[in-house]
Amino acid sequence: MMATTTTALEGASNGGILYHEVQESKLCAVHCVNTVLQGPFFSEFDLAALASDLDLQERQVMIQGGAASSGDFLSEESHNVSLDGDFSIQVLEKALEVWDLQVIPLHSPVAEPAQIDPELENAFICHLHDHWFCIRKVNREWYNFDSLYAAPMHLSKFYLSAYLDTLKGSGWSIFLVRGNFPKECPISASEASNGYGQWLSPEDAERITKSVSSSTQVPSEKPSLNQQPSDLSYGEAEMLSQMEDDDLKAAIAASLMDSAPASSKSEVVASSQDENQSSKDKVE
Q: What is the pTM of this model?
């Protein structure tokens, strides 16, 4: 039965609680779909069934097109799910179509507005090699729901654009998700226990992110977090400190100066100058 849906801008979803799934085996595609929908809507078995249906449809099309001799395509091996559990984008599209959501490549002409103002959208799907994850707006705030993270990582509207650009530059395929997102998860708490899903308040998510980052932090030549612009959240500062692109760091610092209070602008300039001088010293 379909749940009542509405746009993400109309009120709080799931009572303001974030739904996150932590990586299990190679089920990142399952985690990605469920965090887009903000609830445990699909299992790996559901996606496997969709993959099987797609395989059957594709084989029938090939046969009707006179490609019955194509042994590779007509073999029993699936073209939509691998033996280790990785799913194709077509499977993710079919799963989200169930909830009247459309998946659009970000580089396509119809997605051009999202390339200019990504903060006006509601969700993005990112893929590289065998990993999928979702970036989602929940209750007017953006979060990175990568299942490799212990909790959703908050993204400011400005950092969203910079982060998407970084992913694209690193070879990630990015897809825009549009449509009427489920406002509430229609599954009861007893049915929602899949072993890797968790419901977190934004405060809990921030606390977990800080705890994990602190426990895994080791001395390095990377800039200290207290050198980052104060406008960034803790999670954003951690992600920014891991970037090796000095030009991107400088662009972020310059852009933040436009909106930063006067008292913090000097900190931004000093941080940028320190990083540039450090880079020059290493070259020399």
A: 0.70
Catalytic site includes residue 131:
yes
Tell me whether residue 146 is one of the annotated catalytic residues: yes
Number of C-beta neighbours around residue 267 at 10 A? 17
Percentages of the chain per state (helix, strand, coil), in multiples of 5: 45, 15, 40
Q: Are 171 and 122 in contact (CB under 8 A)?
A: no
**Residue 144 confidence class, pLDDT cut points 50, 70, 90:** very high
**Catalytic residue of the set 28, 32, 134, 185:** 28
Q: Which of 146, 154, 185, 231 is catalytic?
A: 146
Between 8 and 246, residue with greater pLDDT: 246
Q: What is the DSSP letter of 128?
A: E
Which pair of structure tokens corresponds to residue 111? 């997605």
Report the alpha-carbon distance of residue 151 to residue 18 in Å, rounded. 9
pLDDT at residue 188, rounded to an integer: 55
